[in-house]
Amino acid sequence: MDTALTLARGSRVGSADDILARSGAIPEYTSFPSMDELTARFEALRKEHPELISVQRIGTSRLGDALMMYSIGEGALSHLVVGGVHPNEPVGAWTALHLLEQLATDTELRLGLAARWSIVPCIDPDGARLNEGWFAHPGDRSSYARAFYRPAPNEQVEWTFPWSYKRAYFDAMLPETQALARAIDLTTPDLYVALHNAEMGGVYYYLTRDVPEIYDLLAAVPESLGLPLDKGEPEGGHLTELAQAIFLTGTLEEVYDWIESLGGDPFPPGSGGNASSDYALRHGTLSLIAELPYWKHADADNTEPIDESYAELLARTGSVFVDFGTELMDMLAAAEPMLTLDSPFLRASRAFVPMMTATGESNIARSLQPEAQRPATVAERFGCEDLIHMYRLRYGGMLLRALEAEVNAGTARAELRRICARMHALYTRWQEEAAEENAAETIPISSLVGVQYGAILAGASYFAGSL
Fold first, then answer.
1. Global confidence as pTM
2. How much of the chain, in percent, has pLDDT values that exceed 90?
3. How many C-beta atoms surround the C-beta of residue 65 within 10 A?
């Protein structure tokens, strides 16, 4: 009998006890798979179960990788699970594979959830390959950031669906985005799960509508695996909290209006478009995202007040963002006349570097609002301060990779080599500062997969009426 079923003996498939048991029975992983390994594993599984698993090509990446969708199961319900929507978020690779394995080998689970499942292993293989430098040793945050890659917003599959609002307009869908749209339209899913993950802190969720029937279970899954909920600073001040660490996805129009209300420039050219979850709404789809970190920290769910107001915290950290964002902008501006390679790292740097100062200015503007005049919490302080380290290491690292590409290609002039050396020294200082304040604990990959897998089962069981 399957290990998860042994643990869940006596529990009905899709019940809370069953889902918690299955979430805790994930194989041990010590690394993330390369794209070639992930593709080989999915194909091997399909060949082991040809009577259960089918596959179809839904598109082709910009660099020529086939984009495949695997399907299994039968029923009136349809569920779509997609990995690699952001290529620096590879937890979903193992989650997608584990889900297909379990559906293929566990008849009771497959029949109990009574659905047609469609699974895309990775929708952005080109971007995933540019992150493979840290996949073998994912617990080292410094190595992770140094080999980090996240596409510019207008090159992100998740954020390049058509959209038009006020002065913003986007219709430049990527081939991978067209493939994802095709997958959504072909499957017309009841449940759509885009497999994201965060970096540091605790677990939190997004839903496209209020589904209170699953909130207790979504909180119980990470708790059962020893992971905290993230009770600190949300990703955007406009977000509606449905329950603790569970947010309503909201609309891009709301994001636009919120940024505009703070005096910012909403969605300048190159910002990208709408999200896949919004596109899926045309089919009445419930979209669910489980955001979970590689590292956890004791402060992530500490809601005790501190002796600093929320306004002071936003203003202080906002000022740091403006300062280091200005440093990066000055470095990029000095290098620009000598850059000859249109690398993904350079395009991403051109997009993200200005966002650092914009983030700081937004924080400062938020600090002036009446609702910020209250005590901050430990979790909010941790979230705001760690975001500084995260962004400096992420986007400073990508700019450094862009400059090094010129040096390594032998195209860099003497002055550009000197700028690259200064950027390396600055980045090394940021790494050292982050290491000094690092009291984080690396989360076992099996626990991260367990949270995503449990969230998927919670959503599917809600539709099956099993909870």
1. 0.91
2. 83
3. 19
